[in-house]
Amino acid sequence: LNIALLAGDGIGPEVINQAVKVCDAVAVKHGHEIKWIPALTGAAAIDAVGEPYPDETHKICINADAILFGAIGHPKYDNDPSAKVRPEQGLLKMRKKLGLFANVRPTFTFPSLIDNSPLKRERIEGTDLVFLRELTGGIYFGEKGRKDGGETAFDTCTYTREEVIRLAKKGFELAMTRSKKLCCVDKANVLETSRLWRETVQAMEKDYPEVEVSYEFVDAVAMRLVQWPNSYDVLITENLFGDILTDEASVISGSMGLMPSASVGEKTSLYEPIHGSYPQAAGKNIANPLATILSAAMMFEDAFGLKQEAESIRNVVNKSLAEGVVTEDLSGKNKAYKTSEVGDWLV
Amino acid sequence: LNIALLAGDGIGPEVINQAVKVCDAVAVKHGHEIKWIPALTGAAAIDAVGEPYPDETHKICINADAILFGAIGHPKYDNDPSAKVRPEQGLLKMRKKLGLFANVRPTFTFPSLIDNSPLKRERIEGTDLVFLRELTGGIYFGEKGRKDGGETAFDTCTYTREEVIRLAKKGFELAMTRSKKLCCVDKANVLETSRLWRETVQAMEKDYPEVEVSYEFVDAVAMRLVQWPNSYDVLITENLFGDILTDEASVISGSMGLMPSASVGEKTSLYEPIHGSYPQAAGKNIANPLATILSAAMMFEDAFGLKQEAESIRNVVNKSLAEGVVTEDLSGKNKAYKTSEVGDWLV
Ligand SMILES: CC(C)[C@H](C(=O)O)[C@@H](O)C(=O)O
Ligand SMILES: CC(C)[C@H](C(=O)O)[C@@H](O)C(=O)O
Asked: Which residues in A292-324 are b (16+ Cβ under 10 Å) and which e?
């Protein structure tokens, strides 16, 4: 198994290290051999070679069987609207060049952690939803710029029917393996791109007669996600709405440090925790490595078809939660373990 | 006081009726005379004259001292992406033609209703924030359409520096009357329009040296709003982000049926409840009229400078909540009052 290893910025390297240890242990137990191929990305890559997603890194990624990713972002770029090179550009370039058009983000609750949520227990119990966010189109990649000597700015949101179809197809297929409920999130009462989304998904309904499809406006979903998250199953949406709603959804479980994600597309898939680079914690050995480790479990299952290996990672993670071998974000009044101690215990 | 009365669709007429009764009672008590000028809008206007915001209605609005608005929207338009005329177009046309560039949306908690929230008490206690949403620009009003024989759709988000300045100015001024904290919500790591917003607001900081300004990405705010709503005070943002985030925020208090709003701009201001037309409840005399009545209180205070009148409305609303004279959405296991009964009690 050739895995490209993109640790990135902030706490990225620390959490990635634990995932590597756990994957190696699983590989030994199940008789696999993993070859890790580290590559530069994000602010770390800008510092080293002036480019957040160097060609060298791209070459490593396309030739790998899967990509394990930490986090990118550094505060020195955030408050400088005029910065010429930004870590985020690397992320967007990577998504586009690797054709990672679908970001898969599950949100579920851990029974032992349910009281960590800002939401009341009775509102979130049983929540098990998945967002499929379109990741290589929309306003992220449309034409943008300035006019009138810099006084007017514009961004263009563009979608083709084909882009909608390939994302929606994944949504319908995923719904078929779950409870057969699909929600298409858009703003069809205002946006032309949303009307294209809605009419395209409506036309696909006949190919999946068992799937019950609903259409909801993004503002209504932003409300209902917090009110009744367990009323949703599979949700599909465009890039920017997905960015906002998946982050909102990540709060539901109260365990943001535990939520994994996958970005899938034409060839190699990428697995990453949904949390960011959390610069305040970088280098302190306190960050929660579990989201990255659970992303590695998704990688075993989805990229390699190794279900048992994925299960053995999930099982040991559940055990660490049950026995309280957790970092300070989850330890409450009990002893907080260090990032590396959690990794060692899982191994 | 000449007030244009736009009842609109669904529960609009029912809740507007209660507000009219309450305003009339306040006027009598304080020696004012109100002239109500009813006008058509929304689906009701399409049905009557084929147009969701008729010129006749616009004439009435620009000549009024204020506008009291119910709700618009009818389900028969929602699942038809190809409908030629939609109630929402009326709303957008009205905002644009009346120059209502700032939507003011407070979110606060009512001590007696705090346990209605899906969020835990300790997370929301003390929440008192205000969104200023830009309402006449951005992707709502930019060029949109189809290309490639309908196979490609596009929407354009445009902002000029002037549009940002006039909205941000209101934000800074509002912050000065409150706790002097302003949060500018954008997506400056991806969008050019957001970078214009951020650089423009940054340049205005020197004119308000007492205001502490923070800049946060929209996805981060979508999370933090649910995690720690009471960490925010005044938030300014562009049209689409504002649409999503203000709806999300409306859930915090657990009393969506109670949240008022104002849309202000160049001349006449408009006051409306934040809830929608709630077609399932239309005609049943069960809808909560308090958000509309509290919007009328905002109208007395802000449009007419009649603070005492506003306070007397707010006081009697608080009394109805304390004494349980409330509609079924708030009555819990106790007796539910009808929409009109709540109105009568307040009078
Ligand atoms: C860092 C940023 C460009 C990125 C995005 O907006 O896609 C992030 O928020 C995410 O969701 O992965
Ligand atoms: C009905 C719709 C066009 C409108 C909007 O998106 O502005 C509504 O959601 C609102 O927030 O007033």
From this structure: bbbbbbbbbbbbeebeebbebbbebbeebbeee
Looking at residue B86, its pLDDT comes to: 84
In this predicted model, what pLDDT tens digit does every residue of B138-192 receive, in sequence order? 999 999 999 999 999 999 999 999 999 999 999 999 999 999 999 999 999 899 9
Residue of A nearest to B143 (CA): A156
Question: Residues B137, B187: one domain?
Answer: yes
B165 lies within 8 A of chain A by CB: no
| Total domains in the fold of chain A | 2
Q: Which numbered atom of ligand 2 lies nearest the CA of B95?
A: 7
For residues B203 and B119, membership in a common domain is answered with: yes
- Contact at CB, A251 and B193, closer than 8 angstroms: no
Q: Are A292 and A268 in contact (CB under 8 A)?
A: no
CA A124 to chain centroid, in Å, comes to 21
Residues of chain B neighbouring A191 (CB-CB closer than 8 A)? 139, 144, 155
A222·B240 Cβ contact <8 A? no
B119 belongs to a structural domain: yes
For the cut 90, the answer to whether the pLDDT of residue A253 exceeds it is no
Portion 179-198 of A in contact with B at CB < 8 A: 187-193, 195-196, 198
Structure tokens at B81: 């992406």
Last residue in a domain, options A199, A226, A256 = A256
Q: The pTM is what?
A: 0.95
**Residues B103-142: pLDDT tens digits?**
999 999 988 889 889 999 999 999 999 999 999 999 999 9
> Number of A:B CB contacts under 8 A?
179
Any idea which residue has 């490595």 for tokens?
A: A289
For residues B49 and B234, what is the distance between their CA atoms, to the nearest angstrom?
40
Domain membership of residue A115 (yes or no) is: yes
